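Need residues for this backbone.
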């Protein structure tokens, strides 16, 4: 759901965020079937590191 949440925070509406998520999942499924490999969520949807916040002097 993190991918969906990121899409929502960038301004996508619910249906658009869902469509994007489903398209990405279909792409992952196609890749796995084409390459004959098992699905790995950490590769398909890697977590992004949180940005470093610096204090203003």
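Answer:
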């Amino acid at each position: 759901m993190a991918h969906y949440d990121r899409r929502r925070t960038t301004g996508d509406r619910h249906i658009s965020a869902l469509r994007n998520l489903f398209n990405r999942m279909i792409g992952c499924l196609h890749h796995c079937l084409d390459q004959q490999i098992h699905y790995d969520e950490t590769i398909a949807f890697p977590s992004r590191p949180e940005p470093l916040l610096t204090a203003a002097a």
